[in-house]
Amino acid sequence: MTDFTRPWHSSYAPGVPPVVDVPDEPLTAALDRAAAAWPERVAVDFLGATTTYGELAGAVARGAAVLRDLGVRAGDRVAIVLPNCTSHVVAFYAALRLGAVVVEHNPTYTADELAHQLADSGATVALVWEKAVAPALAAQDRTAVRTVVAVDVSADLPAAKRFALRLPLPAARRTRTALRAALPAGTPVWHRLVADATALPVGTPRPTADDVALLQYTGGTTGTPKAAVLTHRNLVANAVQGQAWTQAEPGTETIYGVLPFFHAFGLTLCLTYATRVGATLVAFPKFDPEQVLAAQRRRPGTFLPAVPPMLDRLAASAEAAKADLSSFRYAISGAMSLSPETAARWERVTGGLVIEGYGMTETSPVALGSPLSPDRRPGALGLPFPSTDVRVVDQEDPARDVAPGEQGELLIRGPQVFSGYWGRPEETAEQLLPGGWLRTGDVVRLDDDGFVVLVDRIKEMIVTGGFKVYPSQVEDKLRGMPGVRDVAVVGLPGGDLGEKVVAAIVTELGAHVDIAAVREWCSERLARYAVPRELVILTELPRSQIGKVLRRVVRDDLMASSA
To answer: For 461-562, which CATH superfamily applies?
Structure first.
């Protein structure tokens, strides 16, 4: 674009450019540069076991040779079914180095859930956590997977911890059971294969920027998961945009990897952005505040990508333990709204900034963010990233832009926007409009200063008596009600009304909340049609792996129980 002046550029933090140059290179080029520039710098710290950039590059070269010997060729899909660990980082870059396509999967999936995605992607080799080998093998007959390779996560631990796992103690047995599983005879083991391999020859052809790098499944909160096709260029662009936004000094950052790498948010911030800026990645197999505080004493972090519940729990744990989190200069929160209370608590404990980012798997995933400056605005989605354009359009007619300040559907265009859904041309056509505009399905408002403010998701909007009710607006009001700890608002069949508004609430310990109190509270704060007609008390709300409340699951559960 020759002229790319937009109203939001004036709200950028000082030094952030409106446009970034996206290099014409594959993702693996950043790892090559980091290994050359900082061969002795720690690339990954996994519970105290360290791997330098030089060692990581060597392991990736051997891992790529292993995959080649298993028959993987450029364009083939390689499934990764692993928790966060050093082997996950190696496997990710090894597959990309061959020109293969990575397909990320949740390692806690059942055989049926895994079978659907493996069959859909056409993956031929699966690198699988020992604990997930059984469901992977059970799914194999329904897929194109030829080889399931077991990954022993405990092999990534420091030597002292590996030795402790062998001790005949109850704690050691519990940890062994959590990490390891018995394998069928003949199952190949990743660590042995990589240790015995010779590095892939330097002259082996590399992927291009326009080759597909990743199939990332999405849509699980609104329907059957489908794979977003992301190229090397898409993922490189988002890492470059992230570097421009954070203005990270290469070779200095320490990023805490508490988000799962198999999720788009964790993958980009912890695997691709981290490598581009030569950061040390401190990886955790799951989010555990005590583990994070222990790591903080050992290797203080500077940057934490997280979701609001993680920030809140970690800040609370740090306050209780009087732990020092002042090394964290900034945190990026995503996936759900960041409350002003959580933002204030984090900034009080750390002395740093927390900003919100917004995106979708289809945008690699970050498209907007609050500025890393005192002008950040908790509660807003933020400003479009460099080289990113947005429009707000009529929900029924996406060709028509709404007036400034009015609510409408958010459209996004930029170098990080995906090329479509794997094997789903019709759904791709519905999502990608002419000109490269992506329909987000989110109802927003674009303010005069360029900040985008979320109203709600179109697909979760409730239509009752002809009126449109946005669940998040009702939830925001109910969260302020005494006795309410958590809430999800959904629409259920409501006869002549179309749908009725139902609130599923988790109460504070010992609190009593009934429908009369909820209706009285909401009647003073919401339009009459948005007041919940029914109340359900739950002990907890279903959440995704990164802590996002799954309204669809709440709705499905309530529908099933009423039936």
So the answer is: ANL, C-terminal domain (3.30.300.30)
